[in-house]
Structures are given as structure tokens and as C-alpha cells.
Amino acid sequence: MAGSSITFYERVEDALHDQQLQTALNISTSRFTNGRKAALQALPEADALRDHARRIRAHTIAHLDRYLGQFADSVEQAGGQVHWAETADEANRIVATLAQERNVKNVVKSKSMISEELHLNAVLEAARICVTETDLGEYIAQLAEEKPSHIIAPVIHKTRQDVADLFRQKLGATDEDLSDVPHMTALARRVLRNAFLQADMGISGVNFAVAETGSICLVTNEGNGRLTTTTPRIHVALMGMERLVPKFEDLGVMLQILARSATGQKTSVYTNIVTGPRRAGNNDSGEPDGPDELHVVIIDNGRSQILGSELAEILYCIRCGACLNACPVYQQIGGHAYNSVYPGPVGLVVTPGLYGINPWSELPHASTLCGACREVCPVRINIPRMLLKLRDEATKAGHYPGWLKRGLSLYRQAATRPTMYHKGAQVSAWLSQRLSRSGWINKLPGSLSGWTDSRDFPALAKKSFSQRWREERDE
Amino acid sequence: MSHRDKFLNRIRTNLADALLPAAEPQHPGSFQAYSFNTNQSIEALVERFEQELTALSGQVYRVEEAEGIAEIVLSILEKHDARQIMSWGSAALEPYRLSEALQAGGIEVVERYIPAEREGHAAQLAALDNVRVGLTGANGALADTGAIALISGPDRGRLASLLPPVHIAILSRQTIYPSLPAFLAEQTKITAMGSNLVFIAGPSRTGDIEMTLTMGVHGPGEVHVIITP
Questions:
Q1: B214 touches chain A (CB under 8 A)
Q2: Is residue A79 part of a domain?
Q3: Which has the higher per-residue pLDDT, A454 or B168?
Q4: Of A212, A29, A112, A7, which is closest to residue B211 (Cα–Cα)?
Q5: Residues 73..132 of B with a Cβ closer than 8 Å to A: which?
Q6: Nearest to A290 among B10, B196, B210 (CB)
Q7: What is the pTM of this model?
């Protein structure tokens, strides 16, 4: 999965020098962060709600086997079919087989993080099935043949000019179509409406699933989630096995904080709750529209491995994206630099959790451990704790640079020999004074220059602490 | 062993090693601390609903008598130069006595059953896509977000609130709940009524291009809610 020839650090370097990306990140992350803050402040019981939401998630995960079983029974009772997929391959095979058996030619999709995880589109396209992403941002990413760069706002890295060029090239858009954002959006609506009317199968993700009723809940602002689950004859819902709440009323608690944490909205425009396929009556007397088949694919794909580890807490996540916007690292490098399906702090834990530390050993280091992610998390997941755990794992697996090893061994030698330590400190202080200008060094020599490439280094004090201590004590 | 049993067994085995902070053996129960849910007059709920939906660019009308509904519906149709309206079944809208007024106004009421077989399905959908105004009732509303609740059923199709660019909904002022949690906590059996429950908070919107707010990307770009006595 990691399989990119460019290293993480090279991608970071590219991102930092991408002026357009920097501007987009600035605007979007600050707008989301401020929106979230205002929305939660306006909710008098926000803190109690978050505590309660955390308890619901913690309880659900602790009894996941029981609730999943109950959920599957409820789905079947409502007339839906449940499929169990241990791996991404299995999930893809299930969906592809469903499509082929039903002679499906066109598929519409509403935004689903887990389908990105599966790389489902490639599998369906290989089976000569046409797949259209319908969330506007995801559609743009699909046209550009890129991956989404944010859980909530997939193409925040693109300007309106980028999108206009893309529409001109791929959709044959006219100058009028591209005159402003509403016109561009209207063009996308027309193209995608056609896709909705012709699709035989709609594929969605699942924001929450309810064990007691067998309902799945999808929230969108655009309405593509509703269309995906209404116009095609077949609805396939892809669900990470942890997306559950036990009771119908638990949805109320989770939904009160999801949109507020994600975009700062009080609610998403559409909260769509689906319980089974449309209900038939006698002689067309049932529900007049909606899909005739509902398939829920419950997917593990590494999640049970996370469950059986110290990273299990990350399964409480409700995918709001608040930790991305709050993270000082994400704010600088954006989503693509991580090169994983889930960017930002949550991705730093989920990605090595799903695929193992070896291909992803740099990720846990892409954090300052400042705790902003934990602070904003609606279910208060302690991400820094797990990052430390993963760093430890990475180091034990031998993933650390040689200079760090040599440096630390040198330091160990010095620190365990007092005379050598004091001499070393004196020499360093003298050297740093020679290199500095008004207290700051702007270029360190040799392999230390990495530090001063992007910021100055403070000169060491002329006298060390222990030296001053001795002098003051003797006075 | 079935696929399901294997799947659930793997979870059971791994749960034994899981580190789950704050996990409780018992479900934490209902959330009780809502300040907003208690003791509100219907008038206060209507006020708040109107304020919230208006803030989301929805339009709210209050009528004193049922007769006023048709007038508003006809004026919206006229504004859009529309001669057709995609509607919930007449049984669901019976109490509002709309059919006569719409007929008198020369409006064709479109109600369709979308068949399951492929050709009929596609053809009916394509035909409906030309209708520019949709008309539905509402099974409730949420004061704190300005959302209306619609549950599907034999006379309550999903498309009327979804396909046309304009959606008109008729809401009884008696059915406004303080919040989503209050609604869900009381309507625990609502999923037995139909396969789709949707909460709609104003017009469809997106901010995907440069975070510029744009209305009506997939769902209706206009939402009109008529509140009846």
C-alpha cells in the first residue's frame, strides 16, 4: 500500500513548497476549526454529550460481536441481505459478484472512506462496470484521477481555476458553464443527475448503523447520499465493522456532535436513515420508490487486528475530520503527503493499525504530540498515547535513521561520564557562541544543518547551569 | 462454521486482548442533560424552527386556515412557471384539501410508482426528472436545526422531496420536536412505518469548490415549509 517511490519526507517537502496548497489549507482548516468551536460553544451540554458519546462508542466496541450479530439479524428482518468480508479482496469480490449477477452496467457512489480503503473502483472498472463518484468533491477528484485529500472536503487542495480546466477538458464545458462556482456546480449536477437516472446500483458508505433496528444512517449536505440510496434498483452499503451504535436513540447523541465537529454545522442538510429495501405491498400498493434490494457488506480488513491491540481505542472514531483541521502538521502538509487513505492524526494510528508498522513507520512521527487532536475529538480519543506506542513499535522494528542511533550512543557515553559531559558542554557552549549572532545560530555545521534549514537554533548560554549553580552557592 | 460465525469469533478472540479505555459493561442509557428539551410552548418551538430554517435559506410560511395552503403552493408554482407537481399520494395529503385547488389552477399532479423491472424503472425515473416542483407532507420537525422529518410509505414516496429543484412541505405545528435526540427518543418505532426516514435541513448545499457555498447541487435548491394550524 505504501508502495510509492517518493518518500514521506519528500512529499512533505513538496507540500510545504506548494503555495496554492498552503493558501487552501490556511483557509479551510481555520474555517473548519473556528466553525467547530462556535458550534460546540452554542450547545450548552456539548461536554456532557461528548462524554456520553464516548461511553456509547466504548461500550459498543467492547461488545462488538454481540451488537454486530444483532445488527445483522435486524437487517435481515427488514428484508436486507448481509455479507461478511474479512479482507478488502473479499469485499471487492462480493460487490463485483453482486453487480455481475445482476448485469449491472452503471454504478453511482456516494462518498465512502472505506471504498477508498478497498480500491473498489479499480476492481469494478476492471469488470467493465462504469463507476461514478457523486459527491461533488469526490467527482472532481475522480475526474482528476487523484485521491481525496481530506475526509470531509476531498478537493480543498484545488482552486476554482483547476476545477474549471478539468471541466473544460473532461466535460467539454463552455465559458458560460465555467463563469462562476454556481454555474460549475450546475454543470456537475446535470452530468451527475444523468448518472443517477441510469444507474443500476448505488454504493454508499455508512456513518452509523443501529443494532436494534438494522438501520443505516448516512449524512450528506448535497443530497447525493439520498439519490444513491433511492434511484438505483440495488443499494449496496459498505460498512466498517465498527460503525455501530446499539440503540436508535444513540443516533441522536452521535448526530448532535458529528456535523458540529466536522464542519461547524448544527446538522448536515440530509440525515438519511435506511431500514431495509423499499417495502412492497400488493399490486403496486407498497412504497412507490426506493431500491428493491439492500445489501450490507460488513468489512473487517484489519480492524479486528486493531481491536486486539493497544490501538483499539481508535475504533471509537466517527470520522468527523476535526483532528485533521486541528493538527499543526496537517495544517502545513495537507492530506496527500501522508499517502494513506486516512490522513491526519486519525490516519497516523489507523493506517499502521490496518497494514502494520513496517510500510508506515514514518507516520507516527508526523505529529508534535501537542494533543490538539485529542482536545477536539468528539469522542475524546487519546491519539498521542497511541502515537507513542507506535513510535516505540517502529523503533523496535529497527525503523530509525543511523544518525539518530550514532547521536544517541554518543550522548549516552557522555551522559554517563560526568567529566566528559562537563567538558563537552563547555566546548559546545564556546562553539555555539562563536557560530551565533545576537543569540541565534542560522547555520549549524554538518549533519546538524537539518535543524537550521527551516529555523534558527538558539545559542547555548556562556555558562552552564551547573557552573552558575556552583558560583551562586559559593557567594 | 458459517462466514458470520467465523467473522464474529475473530472479533471475540481479539476482544480478549483489547485495550478499551472507558468501556462499560452496561449501555450508558439515555442522554438526560438536554437543557433545550424541557417545557417549551408550541409557539416557542415554531419560532425557533422558523428562525433556524430561515438561517439555512429555507422559506417558512404560516397559515391560519387550511385554505391558505393551496394559495401558497400555487404561487410558488407560478413563480417557477410550472404546470406539474410531483406529489405524495393523495391519501397522505387529504387533510389539506389540495387536489381541487390544484386542479382548478390547471396543475397536473404527478404520482408515480417506480416499477422494479429495469426498463420501466429507468423510463419512469426519466419522466419524473422533468417535474420541477415536489410536494410532500412532513411527519415532524426539529426546532433546534430547522429540519423536517419525512418517513417513506405507500403514499409517501422519497422522490418528491429529492428529484425536483423545488420542494414544498406541509408541516403541522403540533409535530415540532425540540431536537433530533428528542424526536428519536420518542419515535422509537418509526422504522416500522417505512424503509426510509430522512431529516431535511434546508436546501441541498456544497462547499467543495474553494469552500464557496452553493445551493441545490443534487437535492432541491429551494425548500418551502408551510406550517399549518
A1: yes
A2: yes
A3: B168
A4: A29
A5: 89, 111-116, 118, 121-122, 125-126, 129
A6: B196
A7: 0.93
What number is the ipTM of this complex?
A: 0.97
In this structure, are A423 and A467 located in the same domain? Answer: yes
List, as ranges, residues 254-313 from A with C-beta within 8 Å of B: 255-256, 266-279, 281, 284-290, 292, 298, 300, 304-305, 307-310, 312-313
Contact flag B11-A272 (C-beta cutoff 8 Å): no
Under the banding of pLDDT at 50, 70 and 90, the label for residue A446 is confident
Cβ neighbours of B20 in A, within 8 Å: 58, 61-62, 312-313
Contacts with A247 from chain B: Cβ below 8 Å: 27
The reply to whether A143 and A281 lie within a common domain is yes
Query: CA-CA distance, A239 to A178, in Å (whole number)?
Result: 36
Task: Report pLDDT for B158.
Answer: 97
Q: Do B147 and A267 touch (CB under 8 A)?
A: yes
Q: Which of B31, B101, B112 is nearest to A251 (CA)?
A: B31
> Is residue A4 predicted with pLDDT exceeding 70?
no
Question: Do both A25 and A83 map to the same domain?
Answer: no
Domain that holds residue A323: 1-42+312-400
Helices (H) and strands (E) in chain B, counts: 7, 12
CB contact under 8 A, B111 and A288: yes
Same domain, A407 and A356: no
What residue type is A13 in one-letter code? Answer: E
Scan for cell 480519543, then name that residue: A381
- How confident is the model over A363-418, as pLDDT tens digits? 999 999 999 999 999 999 999 999 999 999 999 999 988 888 888 898 899 889 98
Q: Please give the order of strands across the beta sheet that includes A234-240.
A: A81-85, A293-299, A234-240, A201-204, A106-109, A130-133
Verify that A105 and A155 share a domain, yes or no: yes
Architecture of domain B42-228: 3-Layer(aba) Sandwich (3.40)
Quick one: pLDDT at residue B204? 98
User: Residue B87 in contact with residue B166, Cβ under 8 Å?
Assistant: no
pLDDT for position B31? 87
Q: In chain B, which residue's Cα lies nearest the Cα of A228?
A: B218
To which H or E segment does residue B150 belong?
A: strand B147-151
Residue whose C-alpha cell is 493558501: A23
Helix (H, G, I), strand (E, B) or coil at A273: strand
Q: Does A166 touch chain B (CB under 8 A)?
A: no
Q: In which band, very low, low, confident or very high, does the pLDDT at A283 lie, cut at 50, 70 and 90?
A: low
Residue A458 reports pLDDT greater than 70? yes
| Alpha-carbon gap: A398 to the closest alpha carbon of chain B (Å) | 25
Weakly modelled stretches of chain B, pLDDT under 70: 35-38
B17 to chain A: closest CA residue: A308
pLDDT digits (tens, 9 = 90+) for A221-269: 999 999 999 999 999 999 999 999 999 999 999 999 999 999 999 999 9
Same domain for A16 and A110? no
Residue A71 to residue A83: CA distance in whole angstroms: 12
Q: Indicate whether A393 and A408 sit together in one domain.
A: no
Cβ neighbours of A227 in B, within 8 Å? 162, 218-219
Closest CA to B34 of A250, A48, A247, A259: A48
Joined together, the cell numbers standing for residue A45 give: 451540554
- Determine the average pLDDT of the residues in A101-127: 95
d(C-alpha A365, C-alpha A439), whole Å: 29
Are the beta carbons of A50 and A253 closer than 8 angstroms?
no
